[in-house]
User: Fold these one by one.
Assistant:
Number 1:
Amino acid sequence: MAIIGLCLAATAMAVVLRGLRAEYALALSLTAGGLALVGIILALEPVLSEIADMTMVSGIGPENTAVILKVMGVGFITQLAGESCRDAGESAIASKVELAGRVSILVLALPVFGQVLQIVSGLLRL
């Protein structure tokens, strides 16, 4: 709730500032977004711990857990960066940020794809 309150207060201030000094409104928006991201990451700590526990029980290796968490992080950060670019009126740059995020996710997930292909080929040999 504190994060929501921070974001709503920052939004109200940004709307007022946008009429007076647009560059300050953008700086406020980016700062509030960064603070919200930090708060969200701190709030996710118990969730990440629980995910790690579940993957240990399920037999998924720690390397796959790391890939999953990295992919989630890249997705969140990419969305925040893209929306920040759109807020600044730069939708073309936002599209490139999102494309870079997708490519990063693909690169991160490549080892998992290799493992899946090995499992599938092993099953087909049976």
Note: The helical segments are 2-20, 22-58, 62-87, 91-125.
Number 2:
Amino acid sequence: MPKDKAKSDLIFVYGTLLRDTENPMSQYLESKSDYIGMGYMPGTLYKVTFYPGATFDPNSKSKVWGEVSRLHDPEQVFQVLDTYEDFNPKKPNKSLFIRDIVPVNINGEIFYCSSYIYNHTTDGLEVLDSGYFLKG
């Protein structure tokens, strides 16, 4: 696992940053990275509003499905995505999402990726049982 999370060059996305969302930020990410593949992390996917939030739990039997990409310039891309995801590294407790390293399984191979993990209570949120945002 990378020691310095800010220098990780892999990202796992599971919501509005997926390539098929046609979101300007997903297009930005696609232009600044190389797609590696579809995979999952153990955890739960919730519908927050028009976007999802995922929690990571290494012991979960549920899966959060998403895409792994390798960033061309992680420092630059994370500056942009941190703002988009409402993550402030200096005030993580006040952030909507936190950026953390999670293990992602792609066809049995584990990749340690940065991902934006939901940082608020999930009480009352709808669980997306498929674990895949675009399937609802």
Note: Residues 10 and 70 are 5 Å apart (CA to CA).
Number 3:
Amino acid sequence: MTEELEKCSSIEIHEDLLKIVNETMPEETELYDLAELFKVFGDSTRIRILFVLFEAEVCVCDLAAALNMTQSAISHQLKILKQSKLVKNRREGKSVFYSLADDHVRTIIDQGREHIEE
């Protein structure tokens, strides 16, 4: 049995609050981009990759070994993370090393962890 959501017993529009909401609501494109970013965090494999990158800059070979996955599977997830600007890479000889794009990535994960631990 699902619990019914509580709701107002009468309809009353609070115009002052609506005005504030309408003035502060981001553009639809920004809301879409934000939702797309959070979708990237909706995959545990990508989260695991980010946790490895919290500790060190690593190549695909290292990530595959650390997470017991194929290089192909890791590369697929890294592509998504890179397109979302969460990771960056650099080439050194024949190796390509991946790292976090910036400290925001760690902050997002840390705040998510704090939220679920409350």
Note: The mean pLDDT is 94.
